Amino acid sequence: MDLEDQGRIKELAEEYGKDGIVVLLGAPTTEASQVQFETVTTGDPSYAGPLAGVELGLPAYHVFEPTVKAAIDPDQYAENIEVLEMGLEADAIVDALAGMRAG
Amino acid sequence: MPTNRPVIKGAATALAHTPGMVRYGSKPFREAKARPEFLAELTRGLWGYDEACRYLPNQVFIGSQPPARLWEVEQPWFDKLAEADGVEPPFGHIMEERRFLALLACADPFKHVLLRERFWEEMGPVLEAAPLTAPLASRTPALLTDARMDAELESSDSLPLFTGGEGAPVGVVKTGHSEDEALSASVLLENLSCKVSGALAVHELLNHVDGLGLSDVDLVLSCSEEAVGDRYQRGGGNMAKAIAEFAGCDLGTGIDIKDFCAAPIPAMVIGASLVESGVFENVVVVGGGSLPKLGMKSLYHLEQGIPVLEDALSAVAVWIGRDDGHSPTVNLQAVGRHPVKAGAALDKQFRELVLEPLRRLEWGVDRLDRVVTELHNPDITVSAKAGDVAARNYKMMAAMLAVAKEIDRSDIAGFARAKGVCGYAPTQGHIASGFVYVPHALREMAAGGIRNCLLVARASLFLGQMTELTDGMSVLIERNGE
């Protein structure tokens, strides 16, 4: 996750509190999704950005996860996300994030 | 009756194996500035010429192996070097570094590239003895004695030229203007590398086709990735004209076409349109090699103890002319374009570049035999955690076609092998675009293996930070008479 995004998320978490924020991920690969998830929960694994050593513990979901998918208008999902879900490694991303949540 | 309908009359490739220049790729150059010991690590990871010639993706690039061979050999390929077969390559040669460095000096009218006298004494006769390089070596370059070379190398603005990354420099590149970053030694070296590799591709083309002589070339369109210019107009151009001059196309002129990695397809469409309109009769579209891309992923490669695979400058040249009744045609009715409103999402791009032109032609996907996009060599990208670019694109393309009900969802997994090509090109984006495949497409059409091929190229315009958009263009080429 780039440093600018990390800084923005940190600011938002400080402004609104951890309970008022959900991070919606849209990374195209499993590895990138895992890194982003880790960054906004336990801290920047590369120790390069504003979230290095900062455990925000924010709830984070990928747009392909069933919980998110159920909350999106089906027509909008079909128009804007369905092809990406089929064309990317969606199952692996969903499994990887579920595994990280389970610890 | 002859018509102006544009056809592709020939295509060729040139690959210059330049391990000693990897240090001047953008990433290695920056890394070495920050960490001088990096150069020794880099040198240890470089291949020699023999290994480069025996590397399967390089053999596919020059046509010695068909792309289908890549499906048969398990990845990675860098540890499965083939034996050199000694057969003349169908599309072009792999040039050894010393010849290329000598040609850099021959291509430099302003004498910023200076060669060591004894290096030229050795290489001049070599260049003059080879049919490919003799026409390019008519100008004697600027030469220095050993003593004067040593003095020149002390200038902090100069770049030494090495062979294989070690030993005494065989030449040096001086800055073109002390106050002009657009004419620094590194920019001049980048541009000259593009010029020489582009001219080599033009000569490979001339040597591999019938009916095209130097004086027949009306127009050279360069789709290369460089920016020639000065402090008042960076990127002013005109690389195409410089290549035309160096190659000896004395009656032709040249224009650069810019569109990041996608540029070859717009250049082919513009070239074909100029042939059809009758403005030009013989257009050569050429993409020269990109020096900044050398060693782009070298940190990953060195970290994993694999060879630094981005060690060669690649170039392609394509001849577009009037219909001769047998060469594959460029179907200008099926040009896919990327409107602003399409945005930057990959699936939306493929919808505009693949599905829309097919629907315009009222074709089903079953009528399309081959579709080709970004054929980056996965040996380079997978080890750099960037995945298999071609495989990823084909999967996304297939998903888009499935959602559009053009193919069945069960066909997504097999789409790449059914319609596509495995990646094999150096990570010089404009070459890796569908452009690199044109010589193979011509050969497969001539052999009856395919009837048509849709070339698809995409461009990451956002990298230039003037827009957040991408761009792209596609064009269909078909066997004559289809």
Give the topology.
The complex is a heterodimer of chains A (103) and B (482).
Chain A lengths: L2 H14 L6 E3 L4 H12 L18 E3 L3 H6 L2 H7 L1 H6 L2 H13 L1
Parallel strand pairs in A: 1-2
Helix pairs in contact in A: 2-6
Chain B lengths: L5 E12 L8 H9 L3 H7 L4 H5 L2 H6 L7 H4 L21 E2 L1 H10 L6 E4 H13 L12 E3 L1 H8 L5 E5 L2 E8 L11 H24 L10 E4 L16 H9 L5 E4 L7 H14 L5 E5 L10 H6 L8 E11 L6 E9 L8 H15 L10 E3 L4 H5 L6 H15 L11 H5 L9 H4 L5 H10 L4 E8 L11 E8 L4
Helix pairs in contact in B: 6-7, 9-10, 13-15
DSSP E strands of chain A, number: 2
Determine the N-to-C terminus distance of chain A.
Answer: 21 Å
Structural class of chain A: mainly alpha
List the total number of helices of chain B. 18
- Rg over C-alpha atoms of chain B, rounded to the nearest angstrom: 22 Å
Biggest sheet features of chain A: 2 strands, parallel
How do you describe this structure in short?
The complex is a heterodimer of chains A (103) and B (482). Chain A contains 6 helices and 2 strands; from the N terminus they run H-E-H-E-H-H-H-H.
Structure commentary:
The complex is a heterodimer of chains A (103) and B (482). With 103 residues, chain A is mainly α. Chain A has one domain. Helices cover 56% and strands 6% of the residues of chain A. Chain A has a two-stranded parallel sheet. In chain A, helix 2 packs parallel to helix 6. The longest helix of chain A is centred in the N-terminal third of the chain and has 14 residues. By secondary structure, chain B is α/β, with parallel strands linked by helices. Helices cover 35% and strands 18% of the residues of chain B. Chain B contains 18 helices and 14 strands. In chain B, helix 6 crosses helix 7 and helix 9 crosses helix 10. Chains A and B meet through helix 5 of A and helix 15 of B.
